[in-house]
Amino acid sequence: MDEIEKMQKWHPKCDLIIRIKAPDDSGARCPLGSKFGALPEEVETLLRAAQTAQLTVVGISFHIGSASTDSRAYQQAIAVAKTAFEMATKLGMPQMSVLNIGGGFMANSQFDETATVVKAAIQSCFGNYSGLRVIAEPGRFFAESIFTLATSIIGKRIRNEVREYWISDGIYGSLNCIILDNAIVKCMPLALMSNLENPTCKGSKTYNSTVFGPTCDALDTVLGGYQLPKLQVDDWLVFSNMGAYTTAAGTNFNGFNTSAIPTYLAYLNPKF
């Protein structure tokens, strides 16, 4: 209600979209429903308030949570959105035209399943609805898999048969996704990836290893109990799928400036 009053005061000619809470975001790596979205019993009150304030509501949005593993969550949320559309019509409001299905998409094999569920749900709920515009927020889908993080080993030691390495990036930098995005990261020595005849990695024998970030905080631990070959200072560890929610939330803690990490664009030959 406060938001409606705010918009009426400062931007009375804007169009509004009401965000509803997705019925189920339990399959998401990062659920958002505790912070955002109107409950079913709140939607009518908000619509009436917007109507009284002479503000135009043009659509409904929702978000099932970031990195969702449950495609059915879209189906349930689209059905609830259709109920909100019908409620606005019953109140005599102009026909809404926008359905924002949010994000949560990942660039993996599950995407095809999710697309099938979304298309079927829209057809079922809005198949006879003219003029509907469907939009989405597929940020992770586009960004996650196209970036790779390369970190150099800047320190090492062996303690109680565990090999411990310090790398040039960590929890307070690009790898904040481990804490803030509940990410499970994996790394591989660059020498193994590039098939170099590196004596350090030849034979691929691995050891119980810990990987620390560069800062003074013990929380800055990237991996523990991880199997890695014997590595040396100036070797490189490479992390894949590092394009989403990584450098964007990095800090300058302890003098390590995340924004100063260079980004290189690699163009692959189309033949490959």
From TrEMBL:
GO MF entry, a single one: ornithine decarboxylase activity
InterPro entries in the cross-refs: Ala_racemase/Decarboxylase_C, De-COase2_C, De-COase2_N, Orn/DAP/Arg_de-COase, Orn_de-COase, PLP-binding_barrel
Residue ranges constituting the Orn/DAP/Arg decarboxylase 2 C-terminal domain according to the UniProt record: 145-243
Keywords, sorted A to Z: Lyase, Pyridoxal phosphate
Gene Ontology cellular component annotations, sorted alphabetically: cytoplasm
A Pfam family assignment: Orn_DAP_Arg_deC
Record keyword Lyase present: yes
Domain Orn/DAP/Arg decarboxylase 2 N-terminal: 1-143
A biological-process GO annotation: putrescine biosynthetic process from arginine, via ornithine
Cofactor(s) for this UniProt protein: pyridoxal 5'-phosphate
Similarity comment: family membership: Belongs to the Orn/Lys/Arg decarboxylase class-II family.
Name of this chain's protein: Ornithine decarboxylase
Lineage start: Eukaryota, Viridiplantae, Streptophyta, Embryophyta, Tracheophyta
